[in-house]
């Protein structure tokens, strides 16, 4: 694989420091209400999906962390916290499930991440979420980390449905220089604008770009913005003014990791402020998700869960997530419904009013579960029901008690009949 894209070695998108949210420069202060909405009339539903990298389950303020995340805490408190939310234990598989609505065993990405020198990418024959949203009339933009392959132009974000892309194509790299290596002998510059290396980009470009996208977007045209941050993935790098907040933290690794998450929190606040200022907020659904559990060796904490990144223990696959939106019928609630990263594909397509075929999909539309939380068993996740140390694995309808099935599309409310330990 020589020349073209791979001669640069890695295409670049950028999520500069900490996934690119500008913690590097001056920015507007954010008040308690995140600003004032300019336009309140009806608009189509906009989607902002923020995926962060390697944030541990215990590394957010509302889970009792010593890390300061006031913006994320407020957004979650005013939305729906997803406390039974699952992803894959490593990066590429989780991101592939978000993009396709299919388990990694159905895309061939179940074995590991896609490495920079591998001629692999997300299978081209599977329609992606941005491709389907473009068909539904959406403008689609991506800022941040791709990590789903770039061995040919059709594998790039702009070849998979995103109308614009700025970010990194590989799994990790220096947050300041964008140098990324796959072994000591294979290093390259990994920051791209579309399909070209963005040599001239530096600093807090990603937050500035996100603000520009939001500022220039026609509020009457639906928007899908995928903000995929490299924070808090190694290398652990952060501006000093965030690091000084944790001077009392004796563990150097934990100190840098915590500062990165505070920087990320600051950047998310700027994005929400711009949503308000641009008149998009009132009809926006914002989803926040980590791609896998935290890496304890790199400062992450998944307490009280066992395990971490790279493992199938709860600490590796149960992730921080919440939904924030003025469109939610019930806000300020905690949902323990079982939800999976593959569910966002059919859920967002459903909200967009896009025609759907569930053929080949593993995800479920869970908007009813999220939006009407607490409405009884029929509004629970279509996946399963977990109670304490046990989970229900089979269902039968009241009308057909002899048939073991999960008829959640019927009007009958399913009644759980078989329970197994959650470690089974």
Structure commentary:
The protein is of the alpha/beta class and 424 residues long. The protein has two domains: 4-383, Alkaline Phosphatase, subunit A, CATH 3.40.720.10; 385-424, no CATH class. The protein has eleven helices and 17 strands. It has helices at 4-7, 16-19, 70-77, 91-100, 129-135, 205-216, 240-243, 252-277, 314-317, 344-352, 367-371; strands at residues 46-52, 80-82, 85-86, 139-145, 164-168, 179-181, 187-189, 192-193, 196-197, 223-228, 284-290, 321-324, 333-335, 339-340, 385-387, 390-396, 415-421. The strands form four sheets. Strands 9-8-5-4-10-1-11-12-2-13 form a ten-stranded mixed β-sheet, with helices on both faces. A three-stranded antiparallel β-sheet has the order 15-16-17, with no helix packed on it. Helix 6 (205-216) runs parallel beside helix 8. The longest helix has 26 residues, at 252-277. This is Si:dkey-174i8.1.
Question: In terms of topology, how is this protein built?
Answer:
Layout: H1 4-7, H2 16-19, E1 46-52, H3 70-77, E2 80-82, E3 85-86, H4 91-100, H5 129-135, E4 139-145, E5 164-168, E6 179-181, E7 187-189, E8 192-193, E9 196-197, H6 205-216, E10 223-228, H7 240-243, H8 252-277, E11 284-290, H9 314-317, E12 321-324, E13 333-335, E14 339-340, H10 344-352, H11 367-371, E15 385-387, E16 390-396, E17 415-421
Parallel strand pairs: 1-10, 1-11, 2-13, 3-14, 4-5, 4-10
Antiparallel strand pairs: 2-12, 5-8, 6-7, 8-9, 11-12, 15-16, 16-17
Helix pairs in contact: 6-8
Signal peptide: 1-23
GO molecular function, one term: metal ion binding
InterPro entries: Alkaline_phosphatase_core_sf, ARSB, Sulfatase_CS, Sulfatase_N
